[in-house]
């Protein structure tokens, strides 16, 4: 997955020959932008994984602690798994919704006849 992100976002240009590097000063910024986009996608993927797994792990850990210390019945693990999965799904929905809202803001708006002041 990481290899795909790196290949998709990094710009590999041939090295400049002779005096071309003076004329092509903007080329390095494309590589930096690609690396930044790759790192941003990696952080997004890590955050998504944590948002999905952490509620499930916390619910299971809390249920295990209650069963061990208070002697609650072990069938409570089933509702704990359901609650953890539901919380992870809700976190996923909020995370994707925020990502879509951010991508809508990044797109340039069309300028109409009366809206270009």
Which helices and strands, and how do they pair?
Blueprint: H1 2-9, H2 20-23, H3 27-70, H4 77-106
Helix pairs in contact: 1-3, 3-4
Short précis:
With 117 residues, the chain is mainly alpha-helical. The chain is built from four helices and no strands.
Radius of gyration: 24 Å
Shape: elongated
Discrete helix count:
4
What's the helical proportion of residues? Answer: over 70%
Content of β-strand: under 5%
N to C succession of SSEs: HHHH
List low-pLDDT spans: 20-24
Biggest beta sheet attributes = none
Q: What class do helices, strands and sheet pairing give?
A: mainly alpha
Q: Kindly report the average pLDDT value.
A: 80
Tell me what the structure shows.
There is one protein chain. By secondary structure, this protein is an all-alpha fold. The chain is built from four helices and no strands. Helix 1 (2-9) runs antiparallel to helix 3 and helix 3 (27-70) packs antiparallel against helix 4. It is elongated. The two termini are 44 Å apart.
What are the salient characteristics of this protein?
117 residues; mainly alpha; 0% strand; elongated
């Amino acid at each position: 997955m990481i290899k795909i992100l790196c290949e998709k976002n990094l710009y590999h240009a041939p090295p400049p020959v002779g005096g071309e590097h003076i004329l092509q000063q903007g080329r390095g910024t494309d590589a930096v932008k690609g690396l930044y986009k790759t790192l941003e996608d990696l952080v997004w993927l890590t955050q998504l994984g944590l948002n999905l797994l952490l509620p499930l792990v916390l619910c299971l850990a809390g249920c295990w602690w209650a069963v061990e210390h208070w002697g609650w019945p072990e069938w409570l693990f089933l509702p704990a798994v359901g609650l953890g999965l539901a919380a992870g799904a809700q976190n996923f929905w909020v995370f994707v919704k925020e990502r879509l809202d951010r991508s809508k803001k990044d797109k340039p708006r069309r300028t109409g006849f009366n809206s270009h002041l």
